[in-house]
Design brief:
single chain, 450 residues, mainly alpha, 20 helices, 65% helix, transmembrane, Nitrate reductase, membrane, transport
């Protein structure tokens, strides 16, 4: 029995229908769509290693390999591309600066293992306990503080070349509002291209790096077209590793939210039975993240960019993602491509990350809006307010070489304030507890009707 049945005539999607995960179009169309998914994920996936200093080719390799592993674990029934997760940027940057790349990789491995364990629990116990631990006000606060915690990093890069950064940021926004469909969804990638061209015109690639004695242009010219990615091992032995790992644990909450959202999104557009694969999706992303951490790649997550492409094309075939995974792996074996990405100037990254980190924060706020969180209730107010200030200000606690940063402290604060606050408020019947979503006033998403 074939893995995929042919949809219709194999060339077009029938009106009112979608190409289901177990179907495919003809192979030329499938291969073309697989390459399109690589382009869609490329802009965001390469930015994470570029920002954190990880090898781009290695991250691309584990991104493609992780996608294939995801398809295997989910029994080829859940279409998804696993790209670099932005939730890892803050802890990876902090861990690399304080304890080295090996400790950062150890943190990624820890997140992957924990996510897989949560997936096993979800597979057998269902999703209800996750919703109770992390209701909308808590989930939104955690996602938002992860993005806003990175604001100083964005400014640091922006300030190195404010003109290039401003042009890059303007290009990202312009592409997002000027185009619709696929081009609008890769506005960040297009903005990077514009910023890169501006930086080249201003001579940024001709500046010699004192550490290497070479300019980025020379490095690109000398890089081979073919070569093996650069692999690194995690370091669990160093004294600072376990302190670093603590900074990574809140990332698990983000990955759970992203994977659950991805599964529900695919189920909405294909078949509700897809929801039964939620546990497997978490296990698969956990396994892919663990594998990446063991070899020197960035942690992975299901990609919204690619679900956007699926929605636009109405093609949810897993065959497309097998093609995408293989193409990403092949691209990883080109050091010249990796050198091009590594040459992106700080000013360009500053412009992009100003938007990108803010968007991560906005995703958290969107969770509040979508779930109509009632911010007239004190428990909800303080859960969000305290967590955000801790994350934005970069609160930290240090003792005996062990440090907890703003993301960890903000996450703990959100969980403690919400659950303990509700317990006390309900025992005292003060009405300060979370009373659930506020009732809709008028039609959602439109002007009030008389």
């Amino acid at each position: 029995m074939p893995l995929w049945t042919l949809h219709g005539n194999g060339r077009t999607v029938e009106p009112g229908r979608v190409v289901a995960p177990g179907e495919r179009l003809n192979w030329p169309a499938t291969i073309a769509m697989g390459a399109q998914h690589v382009v869609a994920m490329f802009g965001a996936t390469f930015l994470v290693p570029t920002i954190t200093g990880f090898p781009v080719s290695t991250t691309l390799f584990f991104s493609g390999l992780g996608t294939l592993l995801f398809l295997l674990i989910t029994k080829n029934r859940l279409p998804s591309y696993l790209g670099s997760s932005f939730a890892f940027i803050a802890p990876v940057t902090a861990a690399t600066a304080s304890a080295g790349m090996g400790s950062a990789l150890a943190g990624i491995v820890a997140v992957g293992v924990l996510l897989a364990v949560i997936g096993l629990v979800v597979q057998f116990a269902g999703l209800g306990w996750v919703d109770k631990l992390m209701p909308p006000v808590v989930a939104g606060a955690i996602v938002a503080l992860i993005g806003f915690n990175l604001a100083p990093t964005a400014w640091s890069s922006f300030a190195t070349d404010a003109l290039t950064a401003t042009i890059t940021l303007a290009a990202v926004i312009l592409f997002a509002v000027l185009f619709k469909g696929f081009l609008g969804r890769i506005s960040i990638f297009l903005g990077v291209i514009v910023g890169y061209i501006v930086a080249v015109a201003r001579g940024a690639l001709d500046v010699v790096n004192p550490a290497t004695g070479m300019s980025p242009a020379q490095t690109i010219a000398d890089a081979d077209w073919l070569g093996v990615p650069e692999f690194h091992l995690p370091d669990f032995a160093s004294g600072g590793t376990w302190s670093a790992i603590a900074m990574f644990l809140p990332v698990v909450l983000v990955l759970v939210a992203e994977n659950v959202g991805h599964v529900r999104g695919v189920a909405t557009m294909t078949d509700n039975s897809v929801n039964q694969h939620t546990g497997r999706a978490l296990i698969a992303d956990g396994a892919a993240t663990t594998l990446a951490g063991l070899g020197g790649g960035s942690g992975t997550t299901t990609y919204g960019e690619n679900i956007g492409v699926m929605a636009a094309t109405r093609v949810y075939s897993t065959a497309v993602y097998w093609v995408a995974g293989v193409v990403a792996i092949l691209l990883a074996f080109s050091p010249k491509i990796g050198a091009v990405f590594n040459s992106i100037p700080a000013g360009v990254l500053g412009g992009v990350t100003t938007a990108l980190y803010g968007l991560i924060g906005i995703i958290g706020i969107k969770i509040w809006v979508d779930n109509r969180v009632d911010f007239s209730r004190p428990v909800n107010q303080y859960t969000a307010a305290v967590a955000l200030v801790i994350g934005i200000a970069g609160f930290a606690m240090k003792w005996d070489g062990f440090e907890l940063g703003g993301i960890v402290l903000g996450t703990v604060a959100a969980l403690v304030i919400y659950h303990l606050g509700n317990l006390i408020a309900r025992a005292r019947k003060t009405g300060a507890d979370d009373g659930g979503p506020i009732p809709a006033v008028g039609p959602l998403g439109g002007d009030p009707q008389d």
